[in-house]
Amino acid sequence: MIIRRIRAEELRRCAEMAAVAYEFPLHGSDETAEEAVRRMEENPRDRSQKYWHMRWAAFADDDQTMMSAMAVMPFRMNFDGHNVRMDGVGGVASFPQYRNGGGVRGCFEAALPVMYDEGAVFSYLHPFRNVFYRKFGYEMAAMGLYWKIDLRLIPKKKMPGSCVLAEKGVDLRADLMKVARAWQQRYNCMVIGEDVEYAWAKDPDPFAEKTYTYLYRSAEGEPKGYLTCRPQEEDGEDVLKCRRFVFADREGFEGLLMLLASMSADHSYAHFLTPEDISPDALIPEWQNGFVHCERVTKGMARVINVEKALQLAAMRGEGSLVIEVEDTQIPQNNGRFEASFAPGKENRVERTEKEPDISLTIQDFTRLILGKHSTEDFAWLPQVRLNCSAEKAAKVFYRKPVFLCQSF
């Protein structure tokens, strides 16, 4: 088996593999490989197009028969107030006749050390199954709350601001990016959006696409929230499915909620996702008899690519030091013991050491702990974490933080 990054002439085969794996129709194209590359580089619709050349594939020994492939896309993400490189992984697929043949494993084993060498601090993906990707060092990270709300029971409230529909000739991208910045500054794992993340809003046609993006602005014209919704039928009822639901503050949330409530004559329920630290209980007075349903859901899996860099950038509490022993079966540079020393107003100092570890853990557990998904109080539920110091000492490094991601890739 041969594992390498793809060439331009292999792009079409990657698309064909994805169409088979994810069961969607792929229509023919008269473009040459050179024309397709030029189009994607000049006007990419998303990062998988902009960074097509970073896609990995597994080939049979003839170096021509493609068996498996995956896209790797460099993003920028927030980690404890730092703008760091995060390599997103998407489009992981194999032709059915080559599944369980080691192609995907080979792609990850080749790609992960390269991510380290190229400067990534984290990687992220949206899995089809958690157990499968734990083999490569990934672990559940961001969580969210998925809401289903009966629009007919939301009390109508006159908002001071107003909403505008994104349509042809109405370019809202700068305002959308400004709204998202509130989450990008607050939550670990949030993608720091650039122009390519908002290519979908460049020239929308809601009337043809039956997908509607609304921006809520305050009375002063400040962008406060936006949503993208699509009406559809579910269990015999007309509902609104919100693919995006982003707000900078309470007014932004209420503005979007009132917009949805205004559609209650035609739609019974709305579905949307929020970070799990949002508590709009007081804004939704009726909760009984299924009028509101809230479900905690996972928003993908993360992986630390560079342990030393993550420790250097992590926001630690107070003053002290901690010796951390990490086991990583995929990236050898992450194996070993790291002593992290820290003090207020100073950069963290991280050095390799032979000292006895205060804590020993796998790369999976290190990832979810350094991102802030858990605190030391959760250690009893993390059986592979071995704590050799007091919980108070470890809690200066590992404590709960806001974590969320709403970017798809």
Describe the structure.
The longest helix has 15 residues, at 103-117. Helix 8 (250-261) links the parallel strand 11 (237-247) and strand 12 (269-275). Strands 1-2-3-4-5-14-6 form a 7-stranded mixed β-sheet, with helices on both faces. The protein has a 7-stranded mixed β-sheet with strand order 8-9-10-11-12-7-13. The chain folds into 3 domains: 2-120, Aminopeptidase, CATH 3.40.630; 144-298, 3-Layer(aba) Sandwich (Aminopeptidase), CATH 3.40.630; 304-394, 2-Layer Sandwich (Nonspecific Lipid-transfer Protein, Chain A). The chain has 409 residues and is an alpha+beta fold. The relative contact order is 0.14. It has 11 helices and 19 strands.
Features:
Aminopeptidase; alpha+beta; seven-stranded mixed beta sheet; 11 helices; 409 residues; Nonspecific Lipid-transfer Protein, Chain A; globular
What is the structure about, briefly put?
This protein has helices spanning 11-22, 33-42, 47-50, 103-117, 130-134, 173-186, 206-209, 250-261, 307-313, 363-371, 391-394, and strands spanning 2-5, 56-59, 66-79, 82-94, 122-125, 139-140, 143-150, 162-165, 212-217, 223-234, 237-247, 269-275, 292-298, 301-304, 320-327, 336-342, 349-352, 359-362, 386-387.
